[in-house]
Write a structure and sequence with these properties.
CATH topology: Jann2411-like fold
Order of helices and strands: HEEHHHHEEHEEH
Distance between the termini: 51 Å
Structural class: mainly alpha
Number of helices: 7
Radius of gyration: 20 Å
Strand order of the largest sheet: 1-2
Bound molecules: zinc ion
CATH superfamily: Jann2411-like domain
Shape: globular
Low-confidence stretches: none
Amino acid sequence: MAGGGFVADSFDKPWPGIGVGGSLALDFVNTLDWRLRESPVEQLRTYADLFRWARSAGALDLAQARTLRAWGEAHPRAAGKALGEALEVREAIAAVFQAAARGGAIPARPLARLESAWRAAWAERTLRPKGRAAAWDWRDASPAPERPAWTAALDATRLLTSVERERVRECGDAQCGWLFLDTSRNRSRRWCTMEGCGNRNKARSFYRRSVAGRRRAKG
Ligand SMILES: [Zn+2]
């Protein structure tokens, strides 16, 4: 929760869980905790959270993230709008990849929302000479507040249209809902993290087995 009284600026600290998704778009999805619960836990509560996440994910450098945070403090309404739109794009990406992970058809409305974010992002892209070749870059050196959502939309469409999408998985926990790319050799990754959902679920099934075993022994 944002609030006064912080001694140190926590803005520079890495975002918890960054990298677990294996792609920027999936890490963006994972900024909502306990997605499958009735009341999920939102980690992007303020625009400052959004810019801190984007900095950790590599969508902004530290100077850009700080610039946008300062802009947000000066323009709270516009920043709130940028946050709202970013969450919309995130939920579209989540719906699309949750369906992909579950082997279902990609839902049309979230896909259309993702596409419109992709179009907005591409309007801000430009080709620049790079050595003897050229590379896509952002037109503006100073990033727009939409940059985090745009970067996620670009990565999401790349992932969705590549063979890598077949490796998108949903955490095996009943409530977690985090998504990740399974890059294990035998494609057997079940949990977002072993330390979190993996151990909790293993302890739970161990407990169940031992209770069942004791009941059997008594009966
Ligand atoms: Zn999980």
